[in-house]
Write a structure and sequence with these properties.
Length: 163
């Protein structure tokens, strides 16, 4: 094996390991990004739940204040007063439901993004392994071809017509 060939193979192996290391680092970065996205989604979900509880508490407190005002003014809780209280409760339920749907949509988007990041990480890793393998295979093939005298093997010695 010539020095040029050995250097070529060493370079190919170095490039292969560099490619593999780079893809591993990129894959790990994407895994970390996916984990951060997951943590953000968990935090956002907890915040949404707390907001829903807050809205329910405020709606109940407002409804109770309305009852006190009605009763202190001598209005019985029936008829239009009852409808007003029911409307207050219905609006709170609607607001909570809208918040819940919004939270679910954000959660689905986060799950999609997490899966996308994980898939990109896997693809980077597999691509790096493939590229490393291709570099080593190419260097090995070039080594064999050079040992055989070219791409198609040693040159064919034509017999002369005089033989």
């Amino acid at each position: 094996m010539t020095d040029d060939l050995a250097a070529s193979i060493a370079t190919a192996i170095t490039q292969a390991f560099g490619s593999l290391a780079s893809s591993i680092l990129k894959s790990n970065d994407l895994k970390m990004e996916a984990e951060f996205e997951r943590e953000r989604a968990v935090t956002e979900l907890a915040e949404t739940r707390e907001e829903m509880k807050r809205i329910a508490r405020e709606a109940e407190a407002f409804k109770q204040r309305q009852k006190v005002v009605f009763l202190s003014n001598g209005v019985t809780i029936s008829g239009s007063a009852l409808l007003t209280l029911q409307e207050t409760e219905d609006r709170a339920v609607e607001e909570i439901e809208n918040l819940k749907q919004s939270g679910l949509s954000r959660q689905m988007l986060s799950r999609y993004r997490i899966q996308q990041l994980r898939n990109r990480g896997k693809a980077k890793l597999l691509g790096g392994v493939g590229q490393a393998g291709a570099s080593i295979f190419k260097a090995t093939l070039e080594s064999r071809n050079q040992d055989r005298g070219g791409v198609y093997g040693p040159p064919i010695q034509a017999k002369s017509l005089n033989d």
